[in-house]
Amino acid sequence: MERSTQIQRGPNDPGLQNPGRRTLLLGSAGAMAAVSLLGFTPLARGEEPKSLPDYAAWKDRSALIVHSTNTMETHRGAIGQGVVTPSDRLFIRNNLPTPDKSIVADRDAWDVNIEGVKTPKKLTIGDLKTMGVTTVASVLQCSGNGRAFFPHGASGTQWSVGAAGCVLWTGVPLKTVVEALGGPVDGARYITSTGGEALPDGLDPKTVVVERSVPLRAMDSALLAWEMNDTALPLTHGGPLRMVVPGYYGVNNVKYVKNIAFTENQTDAKIQASGYRIRDVGQKGAPDQPSMWEMNVKSWVTAPLETAQNGRNMIYGVAFGGTKALSGVEVSTDGGKTWKSARFLGPDLGPYAWRPFVMAAELSPGEYRIVSRATDVEGNSQPEGRKDNERGYGHNGWSDHGVTVTVS
Amino acid sequence: MERSTQIQRGPNDPGLQNPGRRTLLLGSAGAMAAVSLLGFTPLARGEEPKSLPDYAAWKDRSALIVHSTNTMETHRGAIGQGVVTPSDRLFIRNNLPTPDKSIVADRDAWDVNIEGVKTPKKLTIGDLKTMGVTTVASVLQCSGNGRAFFPHGASGTQWSVGAAGCVLWTGVPLKTVVEALGGPVDGARYITSTGGEALPDGLDPKTVVVERSVPLRAMDSALLAWEMNDTALPLTHGGPLRMVVPGYYGVNNVKYVKNIAFTENQTDAKIQASGYRIRDVGQKGAPDQPSMWEMNVKSWVTAPLETAQNGRNMIYGVAFGGTKALSGVEVSTDGGKTWKSARFLGPDLGPYAWRPFVMAAELSPGEYRIVSRATDVEGNSQPEGRKDNERGYGHNGWSDHGVTVTVS
């Protein structure tokens, strides 16, 4: 099928602008060694492969910027104006190599261990499917989406805006499962999920295991999902079963989930203890720094990108509020000097979904800096600037996320 | 990608149950001649091709029952539980051969003529895209969906339940276009849309042209759509531009639309004058019979289909109210003797969308007749029986649409 929007690549995509960008997947001293052990292939500019790796071969190649074999983002021009991101355009970010496809051969047989509840139990997907079901639309976004805009050269994948999408997840509410097992044990403060990836030899498991803790409050919205966009959850995106925490950054949505524990403390796995922590540039990660949990309010323009026509144009974008619904989004064509309200486009899929927006603008020949600014129902608006931090997480500043468009 | 549900084919699919079913595409006396001239290939049972015709090759073959090269329905077991039907599983029903793909080579250059307005004008898709935009979820359903359940052997494609899907359409509201052109001329009572297919030689154009009139009231919701499910409208489904009339039967959603006229009378094209008319069995079609416009309230079960497990099962289905939102849907596991309310699943995409539903049921060994009954906000419920009519249109009786399931 043809895609709706012509993909424009150019100066508005910082990942392509900076030939010297760092493409390391891990920021620590042993990064290159670990990258090698995990079998990842970081790519320099111009090295993008023509085809996608096997596990992602079903994706729309033309919609994706391939940063490495395990990290691919959606082109800004391929995000579209839809309320749901078609699966074949959704970004990929894996912390470990994708498990063998044999784990999706008999989906209903996959089991997950539930611990830290009154009656701990191992449940198969077949069991879970009889317990309850819900469908929730929520934005999946990497913590480092927007990292490419940080001038200090934050290490990690140089995501622009495309490490995000809005997905329909179907599965059983975690709360339903936990209540059936008697509820969390006394003193539980966190939900700790462990991925089912095989851990590579030669590395301390704690340094590579995908194990994330989120606060117990997430239980009200979390689900164990077996479908994505009304299709059996692809292996590529964590199938057969994924922990989905609506409104939380991507890393908390643990793929191929094998264990869920209600715990008093957060896990001491590196990805939790020192990874995905907000700290000043130059600082090491530590458990007392803020963890990447609830997402902040954010938006960006998706069209036009480089050129617009003389006359009336439709300016499109997407906006979301993390765990909070949006109250509105404004657009400026003069780099933030003046703003007008944009209109949301299409049905509202709920507080965790993104909302495409549109605003008509008359543009005469010249250059325009088009930016957008979303506000959530609690009154939080996107800031103008960045909050510089070592790993380039959580960037929602409206200025960097704008596009410069020429009308001739 | 793997699909979520295993496709079950069997006794609940009448199209497969009746080896003698009629597979003619046109019901008139000259049907076979016309079929030949149009290049269609009706298929008898067991003749389904392994692959799909070129224009539909991107579809998920395993999700479709192929009735002919121009008519394919979604397996009941592939409908899924989603709020939107993935495009590659959506049914196909074309009245004429699909135009050459050259018409989607430069989509924005496609033009449509707007007549019967104060300032008639030819507008390109490029023009339309600057005028306005909306995204609407609506059910696309063939008038003959459910035809296979009529015992009199209504001629036409023997659709079971799968000539329907819920689609996100993006385009400009027709009202916006018409208002920009000064509004409809005085006395206009119908909106008449003409498809851009090349008409075959050797047939009177009026007998084959796809030209449909809908009442002027449809202007409040109609749109000229260039996207489907956030992807440029595939040629297969009427791209580059389709008239979409939310809540109306499929035939009114004219593909490759080239002309829209606000008219005092309905078109005298055969597809309007005598086609798609409700009349008694044995009667010929005529303009004074009800036309297939607004859809009626309807639902059906999508899972389980043939077997269920001993114990707790989730019963799934889809329900919609045509142009009216739903107030609820009930499910019976004893063929309609007793009913329980089912729960809607997932976000509500608006009054024209379908709503997946789910109900948990404890089933012990035995045979169950599972049926569903939807009610719209105006209190219209599905009837139990059929309203027999010559061409087998508009069947929404709950009894025929049920499934028989064995628990062992």
Walk me through the structure:
The structure is a homodimer of 408-residue chains. Chain A is mainly β and 408 residues long. Chain A has two domains: 54-274, Alpha-Beta Complex (Sulfite Oxidase, Chain A, domain 2); 298-407, Sandwich (Immunoglobulin-like). In chain A, 8% of the residues lie in helices and 30% in strands. Chain A has six helices and 22 strands. Chain A has helices at residues 14-17, 31-38, 125-131, 174-180, 205-208, 270-273, and strands at 64-68, 71-74, 92-93, 111-115, 121-124, 134-141, 164-173, 190-195, 211-215, 223-228, 231-232, 242-244, 257-263, 298-303, 307-308, 311-320, 326-332, 340-341, 343-344, 355-363, 366-376, 403-407. In chain A, the strands form five sheets. The first copy, chain A, has a five-stranded mixed β-sheet. In chain A, strands 6, 7, 10, 11 and 12 form a five-stranded antiparallel β-sheet that branches. In chain A, a hairpin with a 2-residue loop joins strand 10 (223-228) and strand 11. The longest helix of chain A has 8 residues, at 31-38. The model of chain A is unreliable at 1-11 and 13-37 (pLDDT under 50). At the A-B interface, strand 6, strand 11, strand 16 and strand 20 of A face strand 6, strand 11, strand 16 and strand 20 of B.
